Amino acid sequence: MTDQSLAPDAFKRIEQTAQIHGISRPSLSYWQDAWIRLKANRRALYSLYLVVGLLLFTFLGPLIWQIDPSVQDVDQISQPPFASRTVQLVPEYQPWYPSDELSGTGLNFVAPPTTQYVRLTWDKNPAATGGYRVYRNLFPIGVERAYGLPLKETGVAENFFEDRLDLKPRNYFYSIVALDDDGNELHDQVETIEGEVIRVMAPREAISRGMLDADEAPVFGTQYTLPLHPLGTDYLGRDMLARLMHGARVSLFIGFFAPFIFVLVGVAYGSVAGFLGGMTDQALMRFADFVVALPFLLFMILFKVVFAIGPGESGIMPMLLAMVLLLWPATARLVRGQILQIREEGYISASRLLGAKTNYLVLRHMIPNTMGVILVTITFAVPSAIFTEAFLSFIGMGVAPPTPSWGSMCNEGIKTMLTTPHELIFPALLISVTVLAFNLLGDGLRDALDARMRNRE
Amino acid sequence: MLKYAFKRIVQGLITVWFIATATFFAMHAVPGDPLSGDKALSDKTRANLEAKYGLDKPLMTQYGIYLANIAKGDFGISFTQENRKVNDIIREHFPVSATLGILAILFAGAGGILWGALTALYRNRLPDTIIMFLVILGISVPSFVVAAIGQLSLVNINDLAGVSLLPIGGWGTVWHMIVPSMVLGLGTMAYLTRLMRSSMLEIISSDFVRTAKAKGVPPTQIFTRHQLRNAILPVITVLGPSIAGITTGGFVVEIIFAIPGLGRYFVQAVQQLDYTVIMGTTVFFGAFLVFMVILVDIIYGYVDPRVRLE
Amino acid sequence: MSEPILSVSDLAVEFDTYGGTVQAVRGVSFDVAPGKTLAIVGESGCGKSVTVQSIMGLIPIPPGRITAGTAMMNGVNIIGRKTVNGEDIRGGQIGMIFQDPMTSLNPTMNIGNQIAETLIVHRGYSKRKAFNRAIELLDLTKIPEPEKRAKQYPFEFSGGMLQRAMIAMAIACEPQVLIADEPTTALDVTIQAQILDLLADLQRETNMAIILITHDLGVVARMADEVLVMYAGQMVEHGGVDDIFYNSGHPYTMGLRAAMPTNQPGIDARLTPIDGSPPDLFHPPAGCGYCARCPHAMQICVDNPPPTYTLGERHETRCWLHHPDNNTQVEGINKAVGSSP
């Protein structure tokens, strides 16, 4: 730096004009500030959208997709989404009288396999001194040599078989196992064939489904299309989408309503304890401690038995009652702690000094200052209530059939997990997504409402 | 410390009494009575059975007998399984549930502390993001779905390997225990990971860790002696309640993996309305959980000098 | 002035934050000699703590970053190093004590072990020997019943006791430099005096250099030989303690003095605060950092950073008022005898 570069008025005094004590930002209320912080939290915001989406699914969904969730579509049982919906018109069933001429071509299908019947024939095997055993499996025969469902044992002379047992439009693996004199299976004398069964229907059935007029002449081979089930059907042929929408009502009803009530009870109990203080407070909180110590799920189950379900009831109310009876103490403790803490705050004393009445203190200071904590408690209680409902329904202690709930749908779906996984996947996915959304929303709310917790995850 | 332990145990006994009382009156509030089952009984048989189970006495007398029996450790005789003592049922099935539960809590505790510490050390970097994503999943997926997925993957792994690496159900050997206990502990592990992470983050930026650095203590020693030990404290406090969650969550795992535990038996007893078994198992489970919580609290006292010395 | 034991020059430190890069320290130089005390004063956030923590290697990297400067100790630049001439720096050559003794000690480890840890790490003592030495150190820092106290935990100590234990920990390995980062801020006034006396006693016995960070000019007057006044991450004035109090050459130092209570009778008892708050270091001002709050600000101060003017032996300041072309005389400020830009 050289002195020559200095301007002539470099050392002229300047007046301090800048506003030193100005307030540059507009003042925001607690809730405005919380809302801004929540909006800034991307995860929480997306969770909020997700929750709104779930509510739309639950309440608007059934208005758009007006399928009765309890109606059974017996032609489409346990069908995954996007499965073929075509059905072919075929003649009525005619009994089969096979002759010996069929042999000499190995294990094969006599006619294309359909849902009406699957007819098999195979070469006679000299080793099969005790006849044959016919198996049907849904999967290829693996290392464990599980052939599947044993259908029939045929005599030595019988080298044919007709399967009419509950056939579904899908792939089947038929195995013919030769038997020795004692009826033991000869594992090296096994033949397996894979066949794709197609869906067919006889005219009488087609008329009863309304696809064919009674006086119309049936044209065999005509393709008809069965009703659409976007998410497939369950093991009774009920529409999954409709059941999920109606199940959402049960799950979300319990998920929202139970926390709402037990938080309310807890708030009332906790504030009474916090306000009265002294011996009353001690006694009330001791009792709450005992209720906390009750093993939750055991007593949920116990109470479900106590508030027994009458005929025709769904069992939602007993579950709600049991939850409220068992879950209020946590909120009560929290609110009591908050009230005790706030009571000691300077601004309460200040307000009291200025002549505020108890009612005013409660309405103006206590409740607004505990609202944040209560809101966060409710948000975290929702996923745990949904979990509880699902758990109870899963072990068969929840809502009674035929009322669908996500938990009971999972319970039904898990039995056919290997063959038709969609019956488990959809309700499980909805439970997980809902719980996830509420957990993230709860995190976001907690961070937004409590600046002290901002660093915690 | 001894005084503290004594006080906790007395509290625990009162809590068990409360659980027993609540169970007794809840079960007696059930509409109908245990004998009005499926088969019609003659008046004489009925009177005999009522006498056998003591149902002919006034309610308060029954309550007194019930409490006296519990104090002696006698939970009575099953209603549906003739002459089978509830004590025998518990003795037979509880060790299975307890083994499963203890393995699960060990798995959850060790995993939670390890992953939690790791995510905190790698905060906002790739390992943290991946683990925390899995943790959120672990918290959001219901236990029965986790169990189903666990069993399904076991089937597939066995299929791929071409031999049966691990049994997909049942009980007996160590190999039967691995997957069910992992499945059972997973949710709790996710929860503990979250807790450990936030606790560890708080400790990492704490003043005393800075002091340890200023003293020149090497990083590994700072981690073990200063960070880990202090960060574990909040995790230990929730371990007690977690045991309750894990034991009852065990019902589902026991059902899905066909494990002959007490939980499965309890669900079965509830479905059959086997009163004495329901009451006995509830009180026994309740007492077990209460004393596990007390045990954890006492252990906590040994780890945290602030509790031990007060 | 004897040879300095620690000499820092042109230190600059930045932090990456969500809001941008904070230039927390912008070229600070000082040195400190054995047996002497250097006080670093300034408002909260002016970079005092960051300066000493970067010398100790305690700032987290990232988000922190030391962009320039050296800290020479025994002829070696110790920035980014763990050892100097085979001796550990942290805890060995340089000891450090912190502001809040309540939170600065590990709550689950007893006091004796926490002191012993330093000796085990740096001196390779056995656990037993280190613990015995810890008891001696507690005695040295005037803690009564040291054998009993060594087995106690931080929650059983009072604040003053804890700070004594902290000092015992910091001097365990007989460091050449002791950094005290606001050692008395969290303590009440009578305890403050005891702790300061203890530090002074220990300094006399061991001849260590002390770097004392504080915003309390009373503490400065009591303890310091030299003073470094910092503002917005930069040195604004540096000099002997008398120069700073009676002969200060910077409006900020004067402002600090005016804001300090005195017990001289006859002087107007009203304290004069410095209006406003320090500049935001995301975008440090182009000219003098103090310009916006300075009652004597001039046109040149807005855009041109002031050079360093030497006012006397080991007394220098950064202020345009000392420029030879400036004809305005400000009351209380003595013009420089020469400039050293």
Can you give a write-up of this model?
The complex is a heterotrimer of chains A (457), B (310) and C (341). Chain A has 457 residues and is of the alpha+beta class. Chain A is built from 12 helices and 10 strands. Chain A folds into 2 domains: 45-68 and 236-455, Orthogonal Bundle (MetI-like fold), CATH 1.10.3720.10; 89-201, Immunoglobulins (Immunoglobulin-like, Sandwich). Chain A has a 4-stranded antiparallel β-sheet with strand order 5-4-7-8, with no helix packed on it. Chain A has a 3-stranded mixed β-sheet with strand order 9-1-10. In chain A, helix 1 (30-40) packs across helix 12 (422-449) and helix 8 (316-343) runs antiparallel to helix 10. Mean pLDDT of chain A is 79; it is low at 19-24 and 452-457. Chain B is built from 12 helices and no strands. Chain B has helices at 2-28, 43-53, 59-72, 86-121, 126-140, 143-161, 174-204, 207-214, 219-256, 262-271, 275-303, 305-308. The longest helix of chain B is centred in the last third of the chain and has 38 residues, at 219-256. The radius of gyration of chain B is 24 Å and the shape is flat. The termini of chain B are close together. Chain C is an alpha/beta fold and 341 residues long. Chain C folds into 2 domains: 6-224, P-loop containing nucleotide triphosphate hydrolases (Rossmann fold), CATH 3.40.50.300; 247-337, no CATH class. Chain C has helices at 48-56, 111-123, 127-140, 146-150, 159-170, 189-206, 217-223, 241-246, 251-258, 299-303, and strands at 6-17, 20-32, 37-41, 64-73, 76-77, 83-84, 87-88, 94-97, 177-181, 209-214, 226-231, 234-240, 308-312, 315-318, 338-339. In chain C, strands 8-9-10-3-11-12-14-13-15 form a 9-stranded mixed β-sheet, sandwiched between helices. In chain C, strands 2-1-4-5 form a 4-stranded antiparallel β-sheet, covered by helices on one side. In chain C, helix 6 links the parallel strand 9 (177-181) and strand 10. The longest helix of chain C is centred in the middle third of the chain and has 18 residues, at 189-206. Chains in contact: A-B, A-C, B-C.
